[in-house]
Amino acid sequence: MFARAFPGQPENENRDGIRILRWGGFDQGTNIRVDLMKGLLYGLGAVGKVPAGDVIITNDFWLPVLLPRMRPRVGKVVASIARFPKGQFWLYHGVDKILAVSAAVAEGIRKQTPAIIGKVGYVPNCVDEEFLRDSGVKGLRGSGTGKVTVLYVGRIHPEKGVELLLESWTTALSQKGLGSLRFRGAN
């Protein structure tokens, strides 16, 4: 794993058989142009330090542009995308695959950049099965009271799939005769 360096963390460590290399990085500010330039400087420095591999998965803005130029040392390059596209995917034509974390993000990428449609897929973020072990409500881990609390922390935006979550819960609850959702929002 290659990651940004932070004070107090070792540059090179092995944790449970996973080698972690840390290098450079910048804090984000409020000016997107300045942040993009900082990201480019980080990426230019990072490409030479990224270890050789068969597949490199990156969620950095600039590394999907820079890493394909390092072949064959870096192997296949996969851009992992967790945010809605903002027009940058024409830059990513050299990657082997673009994996979005939701169908909405994948569709947004396809619409903005039709030339790379064949490279775009999506793999949702996973939830550990242990977390979902039955404890009061069939198929869910709850408090044993028959009530399950789900906390969503994030922006309310189509890319997040909140409406899909609410539809799924409503359907699941009604099919099991368990009542309905109560929604509490915070400002």
Q: What layout of secondary structure does this protein have?
A:
Blueprint (H helix, E strand, L loop, with lengths): L1 E2 L8 E4 L2 E5 L9 H16 L7 E4 L4 H4 L9 E6 L15 E4 L2 H10 L7 E3 L13 E2 L2 E2 L20 H14 L12
Parallel strand pairs: 1-3, 4-5, 5-6, 6-7
Antiparallel strand pairs: 2-3, 8-9
Keywords:
187 residues, four-stranded parallel sheet, three-stranded mixed sheet, globular
How does this structure look, described?
The structure is a single chain. This protein has 187 residues and is α/β, with parallel strands linked by helices. The protein is 24% helix and 17% strand. The strands form 3 sheets. A 4-stranded parallel sheet has the order 4-5-6-7. It has a 3-stranded mixed sheet with strand order 1-3-2, with no helix packed on it. The longest helix is centred in the N-terminal third of the chain and has 16 residues.
C-alpha Rg (nearest Å): 20 Å
Order of helices and strands: EEEHEHEEHEEEH
Structural class: alpha/beta
Average pLDDT metric: 83
Biggest sheet architecture: 4 strands, parallel
What is the 3D shape? globular
Parts with pLDDT < 50 across at least 5 consecutive residues: none
**First-residue to last-residue Cα separation:** 37 Å
Task: Describe the structure concisely for a colleague.
With 187 residues, the protein is α/β, with parallel strands linked by helices. It is built from four helices and nine strands.
